[in-house]
Design goal:
This protein is of the alpha/beta class and about 400 residues long. It is built from 10 helices and 26 strands. Helix 1 runs parallel beside helix 8.
Length: about 400
């Protein structure tokens, strides 16, 4: 007879209904949890895949459910959509909804995610101006592309680049406006930024860097142009704001949970917050990043899935999984990008493959040990790099750069 985990009967309330939340409830039942599970989501849709919203919004089904709706019924998970939680009463172990209902918990899991960072300029409220986070946002973006609008993308991060690639592939015009001196300035190496800028430019995307946006102007309430800080205007018929995301940590702030310097709920390797009865997972969290002596936010599906596993272990009282090397992916034109580790200044970069061919890997080495890898259409290099980063494996830079040398033979 199988023994139930120590925390199998604990009542769990999950605030949020995104990827982290859906992963958590599925894993809880899979690992033997028998207690009550309630998931509260503000959106009206069941948990769905978010990556296609920026990578494949121009065609196909946007509504790609993480689990079919009947899954939650079969697993006896109470899902309440369109439900806003307005307060956490830590003293009584209850959450309060907008309707005033009080729902008790043994364990509370905050999976509230993040929201697009707003652009604080005049005209941001004009019709045709939007961000990309929800199914509704993606539907609006699809409509703009179908109508052949000229899209101004404010922000040269991964979301902006992915959207530009889809827009150009659909035959519409796109211009990227980035205030830093290169795209992906905060998250990628200058080498990768240069490669991607060249690829986008070759595909007809206009990429403008070192430009600040100070306003949006329109006619009869419809956006018509972007105003730059030097007075220049860029004509457009739609504008997407993609300047980063803010953690939805207001509930945590209101009940005095510890938060990071730049926001986000601070958690440990078990997804535990400063309150032992409250866990947090996904984009809303701030945690120690493997490979760095600091805490930060990791906004990615693999990170959300990893923290879901950690939270399940904490709830059930089972051993926590080993920390994973951070990684994420991006699709841009014919480039299947996979990045692992944390890009940091001062690392030596070894290129394996030819960027012009579309298949390459940039290995970042510190004292001969890989700390990050940025790859395109190079699955073996990515997998090897991710493994080496996690194990701290030293490599020979010269042999690593030679595609004629097997990856296993590049290890010291």
């Amino acid at each position: 007879m199988t023994t139930a985990p120590p925390g199998a009967a604990r009542g769990v309330v999950v605030v949020g209904a995104g990827h982290a939340a859906a992963s958590l409830v599925g894993l809880l039942r899979q690992e033997g949890h028998t207690g009550k599970i309630t998931m509260l989501g503000e959106e009206l849709d069941y948990p769905y895949h978010r990556p296609p919203l920026s990578k494949k919004f121009a065609e196909g089904d946007l509504e790609q459910w993480l689990r079919p709706p009947e899954f939650y019924r079969e697993q006896e998970v109470t899902v309440r959509l369109g439900e806003q939680v307005t307060e956490i009463d830590r003293g009584s172990g209850r959450v309060v909804t907008a309707s005033g209902e009080r729902i008790g918990y043994d364990v509370l899991v905050l999976a509230t995610g993040s929201r697009p960072r707003p652009l604080p300029v005049a005209g941001a409220e004009l019709a045709g101006v939007g961000a990309l986070r929800t199914l509704g946002d993606a539907r609006a973006l699809r409509k703009w592309v179908t109508e052949g609008r000229t899209l101004a993308i404010i922000g040269g991060g991964y979301i902006g680049l992915e959207v530009a690639a889809v827009v150009r592939s659909a035959g519409a015009d796109a211009v990227i406006l980035e205030r830093e001196d290169r795209v992906l300035a905060r998250v990628a190496s200058p080498e990768l930024s240069t490669i991607l800028t060249a690829r986008h430019t070759a595909q007809g995307t206009v990429v403008r860097t070192g430009v600040g946006v100070v306003g949006l102007e329109g006619t009869e309430g419809q956006v018509q142009r972007v105003v730059l800080d030097d007075g220049e205007t860029i004509d457009c018929t739609a504008a997407l704001i993609g300047i980063g995301a803010l953690p939805c940590d207001e509930l945590a702030a209101a009940c005095d949970l510890e938060r990071g310097p730049a926001g986000g709920i601070v958690v440990d390797e078990f997804a535990r917050t400063s309150d032992p009865a409250i866990l947090a997972i996904g984009d809303v969290t701030c945690r120690r990043v493997p490979g760095l002596n600091s805490i930060g936010r990791l906004e990615s599906i693999p990170s959300a899935t990893e923290q879901s596993r950690q939270a399940v272990a904490a709830i059930l009282g089972t051993p926590s999984p080993q920390p994973e090397t951070p990684w994420f992916w991006s699709d841009q034109f014919d480039l299947k990008l996979k990045i692992a580790g944390v890009v940091r200044p001062g690392a030596d970069i070894v290129c394996r493959g030819n960027p012009e061919s579309g298949r390459f890997a940039l290995f970042h080495l510190c004292d001969g040990i890989p700390v990050a890898v940025e790859s395109a259409n190079a699955a073996p290099e990515f997998m090897a790099g991710k493994k080496w980063i996690g194990a701290g494996t030293p490599v020979d830079p010269g042999r690593l750069a030679d595609p004629g040398v097997a990856l296993r033979d590049a290890v010291h």
